Amino acid sequence: MPLESNARIVKELAKRGYNAEREAITLLASAPDSAAAVESVVDRAPDDALRITADHVRAVTDDRSASDDDPTHGSPATRNGDEPTATTSTTRSPVETEGSFSDGGSAASDSASNTAAGNTAADNTAASNTAAGNTAADNTASNATNNTDRNADDSSDTAPHHDPDLRDLEIGNDMTGQSTGTGEYGDFVRTFRDRYERLSKVLRGRVNHRPAEAIAEMPGGSDAAMIGLVNDVRSTKSGHWLVELEDTTGTFPALIMKDKGLADLVDEILMDECLAVEGTLADDSGILFADSLHFPDVPRTHRTGGADRHVQAALISDVHVGSDEFMADAWSSFTDWLHTPEAEPVEYLLLAGDMVDGVGVYPDQDEELEIVDIYEQYEAFAEYLKEVPADTEIVMIPGNHDAVRLAEPQPGFNDEIRSIMDVHDAQIVSNPATVSVEGVDVLMYHGVSLDEVIAELPEEKASYDEPHKAMYQLLKKRHVAPQFGGHTRVAPEERDYLVIEDVPDVFHTGHVHKLGWGKYHNVLAVNSGCWQAQTDFQKSVNIDPDSGYAPILDLDTLDMTVRKFS
Ligand code: D5M
Ligand code: FE
Ligand code: ZN
Predict the structure, then answer these.
(1) Whose Cα sits closest to atom 21 in ligand 1?
(2) Backbone angles phi, psi at 252, to 5 degrees
(3) 481-532 pLDDT tens trace
(4) Burial of 459 (0-12, 13-18, 19+ CB in 10 A)
(5) Residues forming beta bridges with residue 561, ordered by sequence position
(6) Per the omega criterion (within 30 degrees of 0), is the bond before 32 cis?
(7) For ligand 1, is residue 512 a contact (CB within 6 Å)?
(8) 508 touches ligand 1 (CB under 6 Å)
(9) 513 vs 107, 160, 356, 379, CA distance in Å?
(10) Residue to mutate, 326, 362, 530, ligand 1, most ligand atoms under 8 Å from C-beta
């Protein structure tokens, strides 16, 4: 089946406002005169149809099967002169360009090798992570070859049909419509209490903790432990650190001596996160000399779920439609590929925020906008979404460029924006949210706090070149945005929706526009790059984005393949 004609059919239908099933595209592509077939199908589709199904195409086929000029039937020999040949289409195949993934010098190959190298140092899952990184690159290369063969072989075939009954998608922790916060002092108290309660539970089994007010009453020299939110971290004149923790009864200081071997952990402490400190009380019971520090963390024994069939999800983010730098061609290569037999297992598309570029997000942004009206941006985005096969299940959360409140948790889009995008019937949920896809729990979070983690932590623990390592820190803190009152805006709610209460199998973020992935205690962390080339603004702040990549996740094995479409 010529890929180019697939792509043209998808675009032709999208232009007329239709989204199409993959099978419908396949049937139309195999028609002797695809253009005429598209016309007939569009003419005959019910007025209220938003999507063209295989049945719509067959209805035309069945009606006209006796006719000589039936555009949906006939041998390839009757192809139109301007129909691209299979050879042309294979040359145009998007997967062929992904060779640059491993041909050195590109941002992606840098990311890939960083990922592998980084994991080696990180933890004892290193061996398998390194292997996973390599597998991704190798798979990509061999898939490209397979794809070429299959394109040639499949010319008369129809793509297998997706069985919606096999699909299994559940949303958890969506706070859309649940916002209770009024921004008053009491709301903040409730949010922090909830954070403390749920995260201290995670730590309780590991230390024999006492409330702050009880510790102050204990005899000097006693062993003691406290669980609290970090109220202050300071280094002392002699090079030690003073960490003040707060619980529901008060605050208590802990002194972390520089020779205790805890410096590495102190580096990772963020304000307002939940920690446990264990040690010995000073003679006057006024301070705790720390012997150990504990983060809530992910147990190393975490066992992941998995699909019981071969099915995949594409994990992407930061589309930025409306920006001058939105990469429409790369996007179309991606959506064209989704219509190929090779992409048949890709039944889910998870979008982690920044669908559009928005307006007024950064200084002088309007100089870099192709579309200056936010609603028109979503209309354009909806058109691009129509290029995605109609039978793909889509889940999306907002990001900081989207038209929802900036403070996290961000509720899913309002009705007006939902109605603009309703052609695809996407699940539109809050940032963050958890989705269970065929038994795989995916925590989706846009990722604004990653900037903060990267700014606060030493380079080797979190950097833009290895965004997945910054994600490891959030997993370790069991909170997607621990620091309050800094760069990440947090809205107080009755519940702290940003706590990572249940350990996910996959953690998916975007925002920093860098591609990076790796495993932390068996959890796959994926930061998914973007679909926007470098903006002048990003150039001025030295951001070199990884644009036009789609990480494809096997839901049965949790292996990942990164595909390049730019
Ligand atoms: O974010 C894309 C990246 O750009 C992300 O890492 C944040 C960074 N960014 C955004 N605004 C600024 C400012 N003002 N200074 C420095 N870095 C910034 P996105 O959400 O797509 O804009
Ligand atoms: Fe973005
Ligand atoms: Zn963003």
Answers:
(1) 511
(2) -150, 135
(3) 999 988 889 998 989 999 999 999 999 999 999 999 999 999 999 999 999 9
(4) exposed
(5) 552
(6) no
(7) yes
(8) no
(9) 11, 34, 14, 23
(10) 362
